[in-house]
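Translate sequence into structure tokens.
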Amino acid sequence: MTVSQALVGSVGWLTLNRPDKLNSLTRDMVEQMTATLKAWRDDAAVRVVALTGTGRAFCAGADLKQGNAELQPGDKDSLDIIVEFFDTLRNFPKPVIVAVNGLALAGGMEIVLSCDIVLAAESARFGDAHSNFGVFPGGGGAALLPRKVPDNVARYLLFTGDSLGAAEMKTYGFVNEVLPDAGLAERAQALADKLAGKSPLVLARMKRVAAGANDKTTAEAIRHELLELRDHKRSYDIQEGLRAFAEKRKPQFRGY
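Result follows.
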């Protein structure tokens, strides 16, 4: 399989498995990931999602050698497929951790841009790379990169097509943790397990407010937070959390 999936505890793993092609994305791979994410979105057994790759690359972007098959009226073209995938990933209601095991270029870096927490192997490198082949981003590269790193760094990566190492990208706030290559998956699982023990409802609501905060005024963002809090005060999870605190035990959250 070019994309493998596995449930480890409460963590759903998606692994790009096309190492001989640097995990470059085909239409089938993108459709597989979209379908899996949609299934996991409503599956209470999956509380956190983790993405990674096999071989020396996380993902080198779209497979530029794959042409569009002849389309029939009403069929989705490659851009439709890409837009649906990135919309599903960016708007996924549960925490998404990406464990970047190597090169993350073009669409690969756009996947990273769409995740919540970025863990990177020491050997990982990040670059936009679209300009190297006269290709324009379609997964948020030009739109989102300036929101994640300083503007001049974003323009450097976009215009030159060059890549930067994990340690340097951490200094810009793009990467959360840089890890030895051999310890990447273990750390990703440990962090995902930690998040899986939190209230799914709290994390979903936090993610929703944080995702929209930069597009609102401070007053609007705070109002959004207070509206979410008003709803949350009616939840089982907040009552369970308070009971557990009073009883000095670990809470057992249910996500409602």
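Note: Strands lie at 3-8, 11-16, 48-53, 57-59, 96-100, 103-105, 117-121, 125-127, 163-165, 177-179.
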